[in-house]
Amino acid sequence: MTTMSLGRRIVLPALALLVSLLVALLAAVAAGAHPTAQTPMSQVSSAKKKPGPLAALIKKSKTEQGLVFYGNPPTANFNALVERFHYYYPWIKVTSYDLDDNTIFSKYASEAAQGSRTADILIASAPNLWVYAARKGYALKFTPEEIGKYPSFVKQYPGIFVMSPDPAITVYNKLLLKDKVPNSLTEIANDSDTYDKLAGYTADNTFGYTGLYGYVQKKGWSNLEKIGKRLKPQTGVAGQLQLVAQGGAVAAFLTSPTARFTIKSNSQFSQLLDWTYSTDATPLVTRGIAITKKAASPASAKLFLDFVYSKAGRLAMCDAGFTAFRNGYTPPNGCTNTLADVYKKVGQKNVYVAGFTSKFVNDRPAFTKRWHSIFG
Fold first, then answer.
1. What is the CA radius of gyration of the chain?
2. What is the dihedral of CA 233, 236, 239, 241, to 10 degrees?
3. Is the dihedral of CA 147, 87, 118, 104 positive or negative?
4. 178's torsion region: left (phi>0), alpha (psi -120 to 50) or beta?
5. Collapsed DSSP state (helix, strand, coil) of residue 61
6. What is the pLDDT of residue 354?
7. Which of 59, 199, 232, 337, by CA, is between 20 and 30 Å from 244?
8. What is the dihedral of CA 112, 102, 262, 321, to 10 degrees?
9. SS3 assignment for 341-368
10. 55-164+287-337: CATH architecture
11. Of 124, 136, 133, whose CA–CA distance to 163 is shortest?
12. CB-hemisphere CA count at 13 Å for 299?
């Protein structure tokens, strides 16, 4: 036997063994496993076959006809959120209707009663209407996977959750105010020379009522009474931004934080406008979300809610101008639209959370009457 033939007899089996080990390792990696010397190959095989927790929903969603939303988020903000959702679920078509809160619920109720195609998901900043929806059983009883990683107020009723605890903010015209920043409603109320013309919500708007109600719970009516006729009340945030940008008002108080995204993404607004928190008291306007009991695409809807409450969804919410509020969450890109940032800049003791309660509903008639007695 020659030395060369002996070498071949030793090397070839060794090569075969090496190849077989490499094949086993590549199969384990493809299955998502990371085998070690102590990992039995039987465990690697079982890991390869185990489906993810959303596998059944994903499969079902591919047979559905897309999602329909009835909601109150401004179109630009919501489109930014949906764009990120589509990164993970590109096959789910989304149709959204930007509606006022009353229409969101009345339209769903009418269509559901008739058996027509209606919304799969409702989104609204209307605690009073969510109380009504809970009584009527509008929501599908579904709980997102990671809901336990949020403050307890995230769960309002079975199937009805807080999507975003939106802090009412102050938007101001930085060119008109120059170096002045309105850091509190108290400051605005006590300086009628600087803040002679103001914008803000009417109490007839559900977001407006919630923000005003929350502020009054913390600070009472005195600052609102001082403002009085300086206010030009508006029914929506778009009108407030236009008024402040055009100089018809120097600031808008207790307005929607979706304005943050609008100011940042609109080159004209970004040159004229800026925003800040009201440090004397900041009400959180709880924007609710629920899958409807009559949803035509329930699997797709469940995937959307699971996405919203995932870490990826929180970052998408933050970037789209909503408020990220997952416990202990810090956006990796430096986004500051978070509840943690509100607490840091305002102080948690100065924040009021408006839940979906009967008291909130019952207080509205008297509250609105008093508001109109001040502002007309």
1. 27
2. 100
3. positive
4. left
5. helix
6. 85
7. 337
8. -70
9. HHHHHHCHHHEEECCCCHHHHHHHHHHH
10. 3-Layer(aba) Sandwich (3.40)
11. 124
12. 16
Which pLDDT score, from 0 to 100, does residue 293 have?
Answer: 98
Alpha carbon distance 137, 257 (integer Å): 30
Query: How many Å is the maximal CA-CA distance in the chain?
Result: 111
Domain boundaries, the chain: 3-49, 55-164+287-337, 167-284+358-375
Cα separation of the two ends of the chain: 110
Per-residue confidence (pLDDT) for residue 51, from 0 to 100: 60
Q: Give the span between the Cα atoms of 163 and 156, in whole angstroms.
A: 11
- Angle of helix 206-219 versus helix 358-375 axis, rounded to 10: 90
Return the bridge partners of 251, or none.
172, 198
**Residue closest to 155 by CA, chosen among 134, 184, 174, 170:** 134
Residue 296 near residue 64, CB atoms below 8 Å: yes
pLDDT at 206: 87
The candidate with the shortest Cα–Cα distance to 342, out of 318, 320, 360, is 318
Q: Do domains 55-164+287-337 and 167-284+358-375 have the same CATH topology?
A: yes
- State the pLDDT at residue 52: 78
| Overall CATH class of domain 167-284+358-375 | alpha beta
The parts of the chain modelled with pLDDT lower than 50 are: 1-49
The per-residue pLDDT for range 259-270, each reduced to its tens digit, is 999 999 999 999
Give one DSSP letter per residue of 67-131, joined into a string: EEEEE-S-HHHHHHHHHHHHHH-TT--EEEEE--HHHHHHHHHHHHHHT----SEEEES-HHHHH
To 10 degrees, what angle do helices 206-219 and 127-136 make? 110
